Amino acid sequence: MVEVALAADAWDARLVDCAEDVDDAWLMDVTTVGVTSGASVPDIPVQDVLTWRAQHGWDDVQTIITATESIAFSPSKGLRRDLRAETGHREE
Fold first, then answer.
1. Of 37, 58, 90, 92, which sits most exposed with the smallest number of CB within 10 A?
2. Domains of the chain by residue range
3. How confident is the model over 13-23, as pLDDT tens digits?
């Protein structure tokens, strides 16, 4: 995501795992901050960063949806077989 942001002409981009990783020095003289996550990341860390920023004066949040994903992945045959064996269910 950092590389994508920088390639899209962002002035700076940082990878953080949680709100506590954000350094206030990064935000000196900054007027706009984008917060995003990868598809495999739960929404909670993003919300935590937004909450933390709101507690530090950045409470004007605008949600911008650039893509909506609707892809669902089925468990592999091996995993389905293991789950059936564990639960005692047979495939119909």
1. 92
2. 2-87
3. 898 888 889 88
